[in-house]
């Protein structure tokens, strides 16, 4: 390790440790190249302008209309677009949740976890909407709302990291994920049907990750393997004097 990357005490500098956690094409190819694709589509939105961008997003949306006519292509394409101002945020959250899982299970299985959350949570929330539209319980305009993004896949992957954590960290991690789901709901027009559907989708995706992949992670011996470093304590020698006592 180069000398400028370590402290005078012989430890890696925090910048070096942080850089190791960032996704890379060699260590976490799924995370790295997925972020690269999201960057490309984000740039494309700005290049083509608002009107063309709106048409592209409408074609990619997993709304009821698109799922009815082209379910496979809309499920795939909807996961390739995000809000045109949120790419750097996804770099951070992918580095926190997606990349750590990929380092443990590999790119293929990380894709499987991500895809399970994206597809199953979408179908679980949109199929009831499709039934309601068919029965006339919802107006036809609700068949064309914009539903794109990678949040369902992210929450499933973050949920799958919960069993990997040591036991004492699991409950706080689940609470944190549920709070994040609630914050997104409050920030996204609470009370509207789309926000309620999205809230349900995020909650379902979290539990797909936690419960749906727990047994698989346990069979691979990965549950409880991510532990926080504990404070080092020097052992007390049996013949050492007690604090406050006078040594002979």
TrEMBL record:
Keywords: Membrane, Transmembrane, Transmembrane helix. It comes from Amycolatopsis sacchari. Pfam families: Rhomboid_2. The chain crosses the membrane at residues 85-101, 108-131, 143-162, 169-187, 193-217. InterPro entries: Rhomboid_2. This is Membrane associated serine protease, rhomboid family.
